Amino acid sequence: MQEEDTVLVLFDFDDVSQAGDWVIVNDNVMGGVSTGEAHLTDDSCLLFSGSLSLEYNGGFASVRTRPQNYGTGGYSGIRVRVKGDGRTYQFRLRRDRNLDGIAFKQEFETSEDEWIEVELPFASFVPTFRGRTLTDVALLDPADIRQLGVLLADKKAGPFHLLIDRIESYR
């Protein structure tokens, strides 16, 4: 992680060891058959790809970081540089170290085979649990963020791919 005046670089994928910070969690944890994988590309990006299946009440694939303290207290949001497939993804944040539990999500659209930067203000993240929006949950405090992730659950079966070039927090 590298800190500048107004930006905290969380992942730039220049270091091959960053691949070990990410794990896959797909709908097979509940009987689904979607596939998803993540690996570093030769041009220093994280490629999240696979195939979404709606069979057996499935329909999601995700990649997330192993829990750690990101030092995002005092920052305003997350900025990601991505090249996608035209599908709508969710950026997800967690404040605990658990596999299951409350996640804070914000959707973002991708442009097919075009690099875009997406700004996701922390104040716009919505608390969810297993696909349901929650009420009466404390707002997300950026200082409490322990996991970052991307999830695809757009109810469209078929292949997907998302290249992530950089993830940073901005003031």
Please tell me about this protein's structure:
- The chain is mainly β and 171 residues long.
- It has one domain: Galactose-binding lectin (Jelly Rolls, Sandwich), CATH 2.60.120.
- The protein is built from no helices and 14 strands.
- The protein has strands at residues 2-3, 7-11, 22-26, 35-40, 46-52, 61-65, 77-83, 88-94, 103-109, 115-121, 126-129, 132-133, 147-152, 158-170.
- Strands 1, 2, 4, 5, 7, 10 and 14 form a seven-stranded antiparallel sheet that branches.
- A hairpin with a 5-residue loop joins strand 4 (35-40) and strand 5 (46-52).
Summary?
The chain is mainly beta.
Number of strands: 14
Radius of gyration, taken over Cα atoms and rounded to an integer in Å = 15 Å
The percentage helix is: under 10%
Which runs of at least 5 residues are low in confidence (pLDDT < 50)? Answer: none
CATH architectural category: Sandwich
Q: For this structure, what is the CATH class?
A: Mainly Beta
What would you give as the CATH superfamily? Answer: Galactose-binding lectin
Q: What is the number of helical segments per DSSP (H or I, 4+ residues)?
A: 0
Overall, the morphology is: globular
- N-to-C SSE series? EEEEEEEEEEEEEE
Estimated share of beta-strand residues:
over 45%
Mean pLDDT: 93
Biggest pleated-sheet summary: 7 strands, antiparallel
Number of individual domains: 1
Question: What is the CATH fold-level name?
Answer: Jelly Rolls
